[in-house]
């Protein structure tokens, strides 16, 4: 019998893109060094998973369906075991939370409940880019998930540098004009206004308004990723772009992976843009979803819906304790870096000091590549993420990312001590 061998060249070219292997690479390194302290995963703190009672949350959502939605117990229970609508089951609960906590006034039918934020990104990009004639602008450094989705779909990317105040608006305006002059205009721009992964930047209120005005002037849509907004310090929350959106320029994408738990794989997208006379972009996304994942697991949606309802239908209440811990961890990480490295004079190492989120970005005087990561893991027992995975070119080759979300207090202190020893011995020498 002759075995059929596939020529790599006969498969889609995106499969050979390094961005598709970034997550697998980090998992492989962590598996080989299980005793190393890892600043690599941008995952929620594992202690938050201990108190999740999926049965209780499911019962709470069933009560909501049976009593508040007047479906009755039999029909409500059956809904959780059927395929369910592609648009979702918890749209009303999520829409209420967005209105209550973020000032986003979106009708439930303009939401689509997705398999995490990643599916939402994929569906939106598929809908907005029917051909390769238009391009997607992204703030750089950029979350690999949107880069990978764009590459899978054959969408051209335009990188725009990120500043401490978010995406560089002057550079974005110049990029729009250059792209239009070249005959491949920018159709949409992906941004994470609050504590972007991995850069950690946060857009000021004025910059948010300026970005919306620029989107109108240059005629592009905004894909707003709101994963880390809940980690802002108490009383320091800012309105999302969607809450300021008076012209329906913003497509708002969120996930319950961080504020609830990642195993549910539940995200959402707010897409209220009119399409023709009687449809919205959400209608189109639901149609696309029916051909991709059919629907998001009704059981998973029930758990998330029940968690929200048990916390008064509020994302803010649901995420309050988590936000406090992530603020604590970020403060501890920055303080430990200062204590062990001073201002970085000895090694030429510098880092940013974000006000929220999970990540600190570190600049080295040498390439922060996979070979250096191997030395850090093998000799010093500490792991981190090379920033080359978040760039479209080689501009991030001397940067790395430290994530503090997955670790406890003692691990952060010990990990930074090891990290400082690694820098002093391997970089300083």
> If you compute it from the alpha carbons, what radius of gyration comes out, rounded to the nearest whole angstrom?
22 Å
Can you identify the CATH superfamily of the largest domain? Answer: Type I PLP-dependent aspartate aminotransferase-like (Major domain)
Overall pLDDT score: 94
- Tell how many strands the DSSP assignment holds: 16
Q: What's the CATH class of the largest domain, please?
A: Alpha Beta
The number of helices is: 13
Measured between the Cα atoms of the first and last residue, the distance is 58 Å
Note the beta-strand portion: 5-15%
Label the CATH architecture of the largest domain: 3-Layer(aba) Sandwich
Biggest sheet strand line-up: 2-9-8-7-6-3-4-5
Oligomeric state: single chain
The ordered string of helix (H) and strand (E) elements is HEHHHEHEHEEHEHEEEEEHHHEEHEEEH
Low-pLDDT regions = none
Secondary-structure-based class equals: alpha/beta
Q: Keywords for this structure?
A:
single chain; 429 residues; alpha/beta; Aspartate Aminotransferase, domain 1; Aspartate Aminotransferase, domain 2; eight-stranded mixed β-sheet; four-stranded antiparallel β-sheet; globular
């Amino acid at each position: 019998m002759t075995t059929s061998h596939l020529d790599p060249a006969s498969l889609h070219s995106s499969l050979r893109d390094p961005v598709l292997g970034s997550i697998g690479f980090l998992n492989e390194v962590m598996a080989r060094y299980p005793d190393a302290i890892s600043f690599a995963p941008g995952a929620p703190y594992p202690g938050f998973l201990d108190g999740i009672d999926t049965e209780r949350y499911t019962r709470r959502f069933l009560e909501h369906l049976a009593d508040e939605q007047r479906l009755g117990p039999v029909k409500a229970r059956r809904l959780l075991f059927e395929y369910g609508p592609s648009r979702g089951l918890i749209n009303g609960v999520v829409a209420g939370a967005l209105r209550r906590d973020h000032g986003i006034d979106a009708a439930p039918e303009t939401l689509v409940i997705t398999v995490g934020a990643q599916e939402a990104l994929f569906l939106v990009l598929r809908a907005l880019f029917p051909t390769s004639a238009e391009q997607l602008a992204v703030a750089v450094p950029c979350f690999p998930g949107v880069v990978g989705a764009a590459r899978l779909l054959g969408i051209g990317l335009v990188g725009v540098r990120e500043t401490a105040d978010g995406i560089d608006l002057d550079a974005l305006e110049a990029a729009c004009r250059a792209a239009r002059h070249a005959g491949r205009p920018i159709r949409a721009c992906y941004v994470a206004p609050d504590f972007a992964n991995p850069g950690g930047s946060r857009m000021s209120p004025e910059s948010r308004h300026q970005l919306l005005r620029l989107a109108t002037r240059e005629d592009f849509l905004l894909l707003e990723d709101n994963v880390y907004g809940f980690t802002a310090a108490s009383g320091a929350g800012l309105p999302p772009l969607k809450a300021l959106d008076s012209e329906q320029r913003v497509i708002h994408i969120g996930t319950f992976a961080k504020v609830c738990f990642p195993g549910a794989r539940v995200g959402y997208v707010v897409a209220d843009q009119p399409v023709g006379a009687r449809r919205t972009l959400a209608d189109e996304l639901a149609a696309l979803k029916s051909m991709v994942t059919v629907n998001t697991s009704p059981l998973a949606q029930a758990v998330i819906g029940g968690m929200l309802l048990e916390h008064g239908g509020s994302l803010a209440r649901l995420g309050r304790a988590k936000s406090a811990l992530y603020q604590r961890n970020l403060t501890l990480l920055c303080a430990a870096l200062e204590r062990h490295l001073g201002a970085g004079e000895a090694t030429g190492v510098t880092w940013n000091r974000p006000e929220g989120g999970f990540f600190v970005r570190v600049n080295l005087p040498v390439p922060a590549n996979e070979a250096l990561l191997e030395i850090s893991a093998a000799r010093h027992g500490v792991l981190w993420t090379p920033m080359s995975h978040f760039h479209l070119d080689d501009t991030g080759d001397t940067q790395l990312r430290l994530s503090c979300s997955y670790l406890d207090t003692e691990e952060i202190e010990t990990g930074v001590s090891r990290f400082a020893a690694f820098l002093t011995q391997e970089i300083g020498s």
